[in-house]
Amino acid sequence: MTLEDLWKLTRRYWIMLAACACVGLALAAAYTWTRTKQYTATAQALVAAPSTSGDSTSSGAAYSSGLVAQQRAAVWADLATSRQVTGEVIKQQKLSLSKDQLATQITATVPQDKPIITVSVSAEDPARAKAIANSVVDVLTGYVQKADPNTGVAIKNTSSAVLPRSPSYPKPAKILPIGLLAGLVIGYLLALIQHRRDTRVRSTDDVEENLGASVLGVIPATRQLAAADRSLHGKQDFATREALRQLRTNLRFVDVDHDPRSIVITSARMSEGKSTVAAALAWVIADSGDKVILVDADLRRPAVAGIYDLDSSVGLTQVLAGTTSVEDALQPTDKHGLFVLTAGQIPPNPSELLGSQRMKQLLDSLTGTYRVILDAPPLLPVTDAALLSASADGAVVVVAASDTRVEHVQRARANLEAVGGRVLGGVLNRVNTRRINRIMYGDTQYGHGAYGTYAGEKYYGDAPEGGQRSAAKHGQRASTSQPSSDKDSDVPESRRVRRRERAK
């Protein structure tokens, strides 16, 4: 795992990591406060060898005396915990401890290259620890002098113990960081396990790696696109409009030599936003001046008629069955140049209709004049979209961020490739608005908000309702909508009559 992977893991599971760190810190604090406090007092005794005189032998004799003192200090340090010394200390201090119990509280050490015996005693009472430490050194000194008086090596108390002010155990300054670190380590282990198990698509890299095609657009999760009117007829926020315009632009550059005229919009599963993307994409393409037909090719769960509030009694199924003509089945919308071919009556054989030769002929006839957007069923439950993509110029797969799983995208790609369908690209839908700039632009400053005051203008994109852009200050007028007569110029007479009747 690289540092970048670790940073992504931290950013994705920071709540879990913070919770584990807090739990580890809390457990360490609880351990600290429930332990019995121990205080440690330290006293020292110096082991000195006899001095020698004479210039010629002073250096060698001093070195030899030092070695003897160090050897004696190491031997006598072991006597500090002997039963003879501990028994005498118990008598002097009137302790209610056994010799072995007292020996566990005493530690005698000799520093390297120094003939000094350091005696440390731990006890619950700091005054008691001090008294025992001084008593151990006094008893040890007296015992050595009596047991081995003719060695010429002396031992004497050089540093008495002082009253300890703070406990030596437990030490919060050491235990709390250990608890915090242990909590973080456990948190990262849990995060790694969860990361391995969680195969949800979260970034454009995930889509491109498993779909085998580029991401053409990143659509934010907004209330407008989740409403009943999911077209762009209503007032949309800037980020949503720019994301859809970016999708429209990228589609035109997918294959500059063979501009796709019939595009299937599908997804791996249900409820990933394919109908929403199809309806909004058709709107923004028409907004650029192209003539567009939005075909509801989802003959199982049609949704386009509801999005645009159109009549769904006559549509694609009647056209394919030959009971009505395309001109009579097309319905105009409030957007000039955008027409809708609803699904019509639900047939018993949707797959056969969408994969038929008549469907291919219909697409060939429509693409000569219009750009056709087809809202198709999801790829995994049924084969309709895969069969339809074989007749169209390609398919765009909509992927719901943090919902669709990697294996779903892989299977959707396999279903399209199995029938020779072409994957034009993917759309990452319902992205958290707080993450969309990072997903689309990385860590640069060129997010959507960066253009809010572009070139000194107070608004970038569509002018606010009831007003004009600040560019009007430079002699530019805000564009006005075309008259209704212009919008109806390309609509068949029968459709115009129906539209006027509904308006009444």
From TrEMBL:
GO cellular component labels: plasma membrane
EC number: 2.7.10.2
Catalytic activity: L-tyrosyl-[protein] + ATP = O-phospho-L-tyrosyl-[protein] + ADP + H(+)
Region (Disordered): 460-504
Protein topology in the membrane: Multi-pass membrane protein
KW Cytoplasm (keyword) present: no
Compartments, record wording: Cell membrane
Major subcellular location class: membrane
Any one GO molecular-function label of the UniProt entry: ATP binding
Chain segments annotated as transmembrane: 12-33, 175-193
Biased composition range(s): Basic and acidic residues: 485-495
Polysaccharide chain length determinant N-terminal domain mapped to chain residues: 3-92
Pfam families from the UniProt entry: ParA, Wzz
Chain coiled-coil ranges: none
UniProt KW Plastid keyword: no
Keywords for this protein: ATP-binding, Cell membrane, Kinase, Membrane, Nucleotide-binding, Transferase, Transmembrane, Transmembrane helix, Tyrosine-protein kinase
Top-rank lineage group of the source organism: Bacteria
InterPro entries per record: Bact_polysacc_biosynth/exp, LPS_length_determ_N, P-loop_NTPase, Wzc-like_C, YlxH/NBP35
Main EC class the enzyme belongs to: transferase
Similarity-based family: Belongs to the CpsC/CapA family.
Protein's name according to its UniProt entry: non-specific protein-tyrosine kinase
Lineage of the species this protein comes from: Bacteria, Bacillati, Actinomycetota, Actinomycetes, Micrococcales
